[in-house]
Design a protein that fits this description.
By secondary structure, this protein is of the alpha/beta class. The protein contains 13 helices and 11 strands. α7 links the parallel β5 and β6. The longest helix has 25 residues. Bound molecules: pyridoxal-5'-phosphate. The site of pyridoxal-5'-phosphate has 16 residues, from loops.
Length: about 350
């Protein structure tokens, strides 16, 4: 399963010959970077990383579980959330058991299911860009079971599926069906309708939630994420893990978790401020966009966006790749306020032609 960056590199943006001061707003990374406490812990750990240090991991995984009030046996830690997502798709779909999701959404699970020869059912988003939970249930019923994947907030639309809709979905899950909720961006959401699916896991429902340290924690290159799920599933699939994460990354994550409340509060506030500034700018110019709940915004360019997107890097800014079927939309990650000033200039130049 490829993370966002690998997909980003497939986009129209070619890195060869690019300006060294290119502003990369294509992979939903967090310019706040690695938290200081995590950096210090990782530096301290490096000299002892010549050993596997397997004996340390039980305690580290327990810390990660505790941070979300989960029993340790409910948590599967992996290389980013990509690894647990990969394991969920591989273990819970089959040649007769489809992956059922929305379009557009994060491609990782869909591409993996296709590569494995598993059927994929794509349903349309509703007009408000939420997942059509009734449709998803209908499709799972028709297939006599499957894996329903919802990214919440959704990538690339930055929209949400409400807690009420998730409640309905969980209460109406057909037999042999698991709900997989990808919460990579949940910490950035401000809508009162946004709710984590972790309570369903704690209640023993047929739900898996994935989280990552790549986004609000700013540790994408360190590759740590986890799934929260039933103890039975975690136990059954643990041997499917390919990457045991590095002790350096693991110690970094534990240090970040020790300062979790501050990190989450400060980073969310700072990103939301920059996001609000961008939205205000778009509104002033009567440019359409999807109301964002993650650290990126989908902007309506008013034309097919493919060429628009490929013009931007020439002006020093790399936005996200095209996301069909939203052919007129450009996705931009919220960078620093300087990054966004450069983005606005470049966007306006291309928009005006
Ligand atoms: C929605 C979503 N899920 C999962 C991932 C995987 O990222 P990671 O493996 O770094 O957690 C990404 C990457 O951008 C993403 O956008």
């Amino acid at each position: 399963m490829l993370p966002e960056m690998a997909y980003a590199q497939r986009a129209a943006v070619k890195t060869a010959g690019m300006a060294s001061d290119m502003v990369w707003l294509n992979a939903n990374e967090n310019p706040a970077g690695i938290p200081q406490a995590a950096l210090a812990a990782m530096k301290e750990t490096l000299p002892t990383a010549w050993r596997y240090r397997y004996q340390d991991f039980g305690g580290i995984y327990a810390e990660i579980a505790k941070s979300e009030d989960l029993a340790p046996e409910l948590v599967l830690v992996g290389a980013g959330s990509s690894e647990p997502l990969h394991i969920a798709v591989e273990s819970l779909t089959s040649p007769t058991r489809p992956l059922i999701t929305v379009t557009p959404t994060y491609e990782g699970p869909v591409e993996l299911a296709r590569a494995l020869g598993r059927p994929v059912v794509l349903t349309k988003l509703r007009p408000d860009y939420s997942a059509d939970v009734q449709k998803l249930v209908e499709e799972a019923g028709r297939a006599r079971g499957g894996l329903i994947y919802i990214c919440n907030p959704n990538n690339p639309t930055s929209s949400i599926t409400s807690g009420k809709d998730l409640d309905w979905l969980v209460a109406n899950l057909p037999a042999n069906t698991t709900l997989l909720v990808d919460e990579a961006y949940i910490h950035f959401g401000e809508s009162p309708d946004l709710a984590s699916a972790l309570p369903y896991v704690r209640q023993g429902k047929n739900v898996i939630v994935t989280r990552t340290f790549s986004k609000i924690y700013g540790m994408a290159g360190m590759r740590v994420g986890f799934a929260a799920a039933s103890a039975e599933w975690v136990d059954r699939v643990a041997p499917m893990r390919i990457n045991v994460i590095s002790i350096v990354s693991a110690k970094g994550v534990v240090a970040a978790l020790a300062d979790r409340e501050n990190i989450l509060r400060e980073r969310k506030a700072s990103m939301a401020k920059t996001r609000r500034e961008l939205c205000a700018w778009l509104k002033e110019r009567e440019l359409g966009y999807i109301e964002p709940q993650a650290n990126f915004v989908m902007i309506d360019t008013g034309r097919n966006a493919r060429e628009f997107i490929s013009e931007m890097p020439k002006l020093g800014v790399a936005p996200g790749r095209p996301f069909p079927p939203l052919d007129n939309m450009l996705r931009v990650t919220i960078g620093t306020s300087q990054d966004m000033a450069k983005f606005r200039d470049a966007f306006w130049k291309v928009y005006k032609g």
